[in-house]
Structures are given as C-alpha cells and as structure tokens.
Specification:
The structure holds 2 protein chains of 2 kinds. Chain A is an alpha/beta fold. Chain A is built from 8 helices and 10 strands. Chain B has 2 domains: 196 residues, no CATH class; 268 residues, no CATH class. The chains are: A alpha/beta, B alpha+beta.
Chain lengths: 267, 481
Amino acid sequence: MSDAELPVESLPIQPEPPESSSLELEPPMLEGRGLAKSYRVGGQRLDVLRGVDIAVREGEILAILGKSGCGKSTLLHVLGWLDSPDEGQILYRGRDRATVGATERAQLRNTALGFVFQFYHLLPELTALENVLMPSMITHGALTWGANRRVARERAAELVELVGLTTRAKHRPRQLSGGERQRVAIARALQNRPEFLFCDEPTGNLDGQTAEDVRALLWGLNETQGQTMVIVTHDAKLASQAHRIVHLVDGRIVTDREPELVEQVEL
Amino acid sequence: MYRLFLALRYLRSRLVNLISVGGVMAGVAVLIIVMCIMDGFQARVRKHVRGSLSHIILTPTTGQQAPPTFARLEQALKAGESHVVAAAPQIRYPIFYEYQTQRQVAYGGDGFTWWQMEAVGVDWEAERRVSELADGLLACRDPERPFFVSREAEARGKTTLLVSRTFVERFALTPYDDNGAARYPYGAMRDDRTGARLEDDATIRERAETLIGQELQLLYGTALKDEAGNPRFDPSTPIALIAGVYDSGDSLEDLKTVFMDIEQVRGMLPHRLDHSTNPPGRHPPAEYLQVNVRLDDFEHADLVRGRLEERLGHAFIVETWEDQKADFLRAVEQEKVLLVIVLSFIVMLSGFIILATLTLTVVEKTRDIGIVAALGASRTGILSIFLFNGLLIGILGSLLGLGLGAWFTANVDVVKDFLHDWFGIDIFPPNIYHFRSIPTVWHWPSVLKVMGGSVLMSFVAGLLPAMRAARLDPIKSLRYE
C-alpha cells in the first residue's frame, strides 16, 4: 500500500509542549515516518502497521491508545528499536535505525531506552534485585563490573525502594504479585537512567489502587526528572492523563491530539 | 558480566544442567580411573616382565677370537662406562621337569610327562648385584648361599635349584610326611581346604620353607661326539633338590625358569659350548653364555647400549631387556590405547548430553533470551551465555570427575574388595594377574589431558545451541509463551 493511497492520518493540530515553548523549535527526540509492518500468520498476510507517522518530543508523555490487536505493541517495539519496520524510517535523535549496526543498536537499547513490557518479562531465575541490576550487568563486562558493581547495586537498591519493594528484593518473580512484578519491571527499565521510557500496558494487569500507584510513579518521574515516555494502553483513563494521545486503529493513527479532545470524542 | 552471571544461574537452577555435569563427571572419572589403572598395570607389568632380566644383556657370538673371560669383560665394562654398576655371567640351558600324572594310570600306563624349562645358571655373588632375584627369595637355607641344601648333598654333588612360587602352584609340589602322604593336598602354595592361591605373605614363606630338600626329577640332554666325530645325545636324569623358592613377579617366566649355580649348569653343556672339547678358534667360552649388566638408571640403557655396541658389537649381541620383551610391552601399550579410545566415547557421550541439555535450555529460555536482548544484550553476548553454560558444565564436571577419579584411584582396593564381597566380581583376578593389590599410577599429564579434552568437548557441544540462541529474533522470542 503506497503512501498516496493512505487517508490523512494525523490531524494538523500541533501538539502542545508540556512546559516550555522552546521545545517546539527542537526536532523531535523520536520520530517515525511511514512505519509499516506486517506478519505472516498461517500463510496469510497480516498488516499490523499501515503507515504510521509519529513524533515524540523530549520531556513528553505520549499515550498510544487502542484496542487489543490494533498494533500498539508492535508500534512500541518498532519505536523502541527492538523491531524493524518493513517500510518507513525510525529516527532517534536524528539517527536512522536502518543505518545503525546491531551492536550499536543493542548499546542504545541498553543505555538510552528503557522498556516496561506488558507481561513484565522478568527473568524467573533471578531475584527482584538481580532483575533490576540486569541492565547494568549488560553495560559492564566482566572486567569492569568489579569497579562499577557498588554503584550499580546502590542504584538498584534505590529503585527497588522507589517502587516500594525493599522487603521483597530477594524474592523471585513467581513469589511476587502482578503489581509487584510490574514495579520490578519499571525499576529495571530505569536502572540505567534511560532518556526514553517505553511502557506497554503498564497498568493493564493491575487492580485500581495498584494501577494508580504505578501511574503516579511514572508521572512523578516525568515531573521530577522530565522523563520522556511513550505509554501504550487500552485504558482511556490512563491515556487521558498523558500530555498527548495517539489513537491507533487497525494499524493507522486516527487521532493525534491533546487528551481533552479525545475524551470528548470518546464520551 | 551478565553472561557469566546468567550462565551460572542457569547451571544452578536447571536440574538438566546438573544432570549433564554428572554425565561429564562420570565420563572424566571413568577415563581417569581406567588410565591410572592401566598406567599402573603397565608399570607393574614392566617390572614383572623384567623380572630377573637386567638392564642390558650381552650375548657372545662365536668368532675367530674367543670372547674375553668374564673377569676381563667386567673390568672393561666398568672402566669404560660410568653408568655400569655391575655385571653377572649367566648360562641358560634347557631342561625338563619330569612328573607323573594320573591320566594314563587307569589304562596301565605310568603317566609320566615332561615340562620344558630353562635352567638359569647364576654366579650368586654377581647375580645379586645385577638383578632383584635376591629380593624375590621366599625361602632358602642361607641367603648368602641360596643353593645350599645340606652338607651331605653338597658332598655328593647333588643338583640343587631354586623353583618359583608359580611352579610350585602349577605342579602342586608338597613335602611328604613319613608315610609318604602329601602334607598339603593342593600343594604348598595353595589353601588346603579350597585349593585357592595363598595370599598371606607369612604363610607363603613358612610353607616355602617346608619344600627345601624336596626332590625333583629332571631330564636334560648333553650332545657329545663319539670317537668317529658323530654327534651323540646323552640323556641325564638327575634327581635335584629344591634349595629354595623365589617369586620374581613375572609368573609366566617364572613357570619356566629354575635357577641353579652356574657351575652346575656348565656341567650340562654340550660339547660345542665347551671349549675344552672344541677345536680352537670356533667356540664361545663356556664360562658364560650371557652377561647381564646393571646400570645406575634404566634411563641410560639406550645410550649405554649404543656405546657398548660400538665397542663390543663385533663379538656380542647387545640388547636392553625391553628389546627382548618389545613385542609384549607393545601389546600392553596397545591394549591401553585401545581402552582409552573406547572409553573416550563415554566422554563424547557426555558431550551429546550437553548438546541435548543446552538445546533444551535454549528452547526453554527463548523468552529470557528475548528479554536480555531487549535490555541491550548483543548477539555475541547471548552466544556467550550458552557457551559459558556449556563450558561451566564441562569445567565443573571435569573437576568433580577429577575428585571422583582421585578418590577411586586412591581407594581402588577398597572398591575391589567391595565388588568382590558384594557381587563376587573380581576386576583383576589374582590367579591371572598375580597382583595382591590393583596397581595405579597417577600421571598428571594424562589426567589433565582427559580434563582438557572434556572441557573442549563441552565447549564444542555448546556451540550449536549457543549459535541457535544468538540467531533468535528478540521480538519473536518475547512473544514466545
């Protein structure tokens, strides 16, 4: 499907930057242009993304809202350089993913991009604290680990405390509840102080209070440290608190506007 | 850091990994044990095969010039070679032991038959300095004069000899009481009740003692020339007296060897070997038919043989004892090599266990691989996780195998007794090997080779699954449930 055939996907409303207007002048931190992705399932072609244009600015919380199966997770993986698009370009701070080698991509994922997966994806053999430490262990080789271990451990302990799990630090994932696992996953995503955080349904499997705790934690990071975030969710209430919402339907972005407008549309 | 960390954690928390460690351990231990036992066996066999042979053996050949007298030869040997410690003359001559069986008696025959042996004539004073025969003496009247039986026998010029323990066993030699009945029904070297081989050293010596003075019927021939110069074969059938019992350790050789005083054997020699009846110029001296040379260290044997060949090669065949037994020693070595090759398959088998285990682990850990990749692990990083995992299995298995092998090797006799007592299995049946204890030699280079080999193998076995893991698409792996 070529670009010309595509309907207009994004409304020409310029997103309001969260704090200062100076950001408006800067290029977006993350930009996807004409992203398309399809899978082959049982011999049938399944178009998951059908030409997505998206931009995220520094310090922004962007929510991608959509029903399950609409391609949200795939879009997040593509945006987070985990997966490659079949068509289109994905740029992080102006660098095209296609021009960056695998090793450097891995380095970028390790140091600059943090992921909170929908199903937590913790390593079952490791304790909560070790799971949080994992990104640092990946950064440092066996030779430099000795010199950096103390700092990394302190950071991990801080994060475990931040997510309120100090008493459960030595527990394995299967000994933790869903909310606790989610919080461990968040702590792990933050371990290497990423500039960019990707969250896939961060509150999807949580009950009301826990979901609110997790939300408050993420929003707090944005307020205190200006953490840039893309959050994929099917929860309109959570999305409504983001700075900006992208609505994804059948692999296409149908709205890209500020939360109030979405709420009006939805309601 | 995560590579080693995760490899260690997987090793610790997956039972299959520990099972493959056990597999490697078993393989390494078995190989080490077998190599130690085979090395020990080889060393013991070498020692036993050497038995009464000395480091270097000189055999005179006939020639225009008569070989030197022993005294002159010895002098020349010692003067010219710093490594030569001692030399001793020997004369070897074939004889038969005549004995009666019960076979033909029922059919009216007398049942006599003959056992072919070699009478080795030694000069005791010299011999004891050259060979270990003196150490192998189980019983004799006088260790200084082991061929002495009694004054009376000496006065009558009786043939006296040392027989081996295995010979006594084979022919059930026994002293007789006054009524002519055998004192030991199965012979002096066997248990009276069971007929089993005696093991206790004190009993063996005590019983060997009782054999001294017992008679043996010998038969040998002396070739002479009659007046017309035609060869003539003269049989002699002396009744010899047992002067003592020895055990050199080489049971096969012992069975066919009796030791006698060199003068007595010289008396049996045929005319061609007796220079007093031979025309001059074509006779070896009857003084000796062989000279055994002892060196300070057998390591120098080849060197000394080379030098002696240069100096004496025109008149003597110069051999080391290993030359004489080369085929046998080679066979033992071959046996060891074959066994090691066969058992290496066990180690290879544990390689396949590792391969299977890691393949399983990679499938099981597909999602984890995706997670680690998403967190920024490179493909080589993921490759190394599983390579390390395989290597760790190999290293840990080898170390445990080393421990098990070392324990087993150190306690091999305990294990042997256990197998014997509980299952009736004899790993080294004493009647075949004549070992009281299982010999082992701990040879570090071989042990390290086994360990290194299995670590290398675990690395190779890990390669395939690791490469498979590294090729996984992280996103697909993340979806893997």
